Amino acid sequence: MAWLVTGGAGYIGAHVVRAFREQDIDVVIVDDLSSGHDSFVPEHVPFVRGSILDQELLEKTFTDHGVTGVVHVAGFKYAGVSVQRPLHTYEQNVTGTAVLLQAMQNTGVEKIVFSSSAAVYGTPDVDLVTEDTAKSPESPYGESKLIGEWMLRDQAVATGLAHTSLRYFNVVGSGYPDVYDTSPHNLFPLVFDALLAGKTPRINGDDYPTPDGTCVRDYIHVGDLAISHVAAAARLDAGQPIEPVYNLGSGDGVSVGEIMSTVADVTGIAFTPEIAPRRQGDPARIVASGELAARDLDWRMRHSLAEMVLSAWNARRQAG
Predict the structure, then answer these.
(1) For residue 92, which of 58, 40, 29, 140 has the smallest C-alpha distance?
(2) Domain 2-171+219-247 maps to which CATH number in 3.30.70.380, 3.40.630.10, 3.40.190.10, 3.40.50.720?
(3) Per the residue annotation, which of 141, 168, 180, 208 is the catalytic one?
């Protein structure tokens, strides 16, 4: 018996894989390395290189490794780029999920934890987002994640699929010195790369209606997020009641300005960020309640902002 982690060689997926192994739960990885790294795969964890669009490969993996459940992390995760590449986004995130679900149905795999996103909410008009906040995605990426949730819901009606979707917000930090965020679009890698290149990081807009004028976001540590994936899988394994969706949110936001100050303190590199124009569509504040996940999925903020920054900085520097 094992759990399959799609995208298990990526930044988030690699943390999920290690969280499973720390609980002595067998795991197997499928990843095409389009954004993942084989160096992130732990020794002695079976790794199948391939795409979730390859149904035959998935079915063989399920059968060969005795897979009983799936954590579906694989996907095209760049919201901004998805506007320019909508068909690619839908192929990877919608068609890929459909192929995965069909392979699961054909091989009798009946449990799945789905990596969803805060992008399903678009620009919410509430101070604190809950699972019931209106969904209004503003990119093909956000739309694809919402469609993924619908597919799980409908498959559950049709086949009894046991499922839950975890909506991520801003995932940062590192739980291991050899795994770090390599996205070219996320805030922490952008700031660190600028500092390591001797350049000045920048803030997009400082005239928002927030305490310091910069956007407020919900930053959560990747290790905390991984723990809740394992808790969700355990709940599904035990046949315990589970919500169809959970927000993995802090309940308390952090501004981009605060991030920059903390980065300067932690790294010891003094800088004053450049102020660039606002990016179109950036809401002033997105912060979510994590109460449901705290009740059911061992969700809590185990790391301070300084600890998140330090763990990410140490891992990035070790990578060279």
Answers:
(1) 140
(2) 3.40.50.720
(3) 141
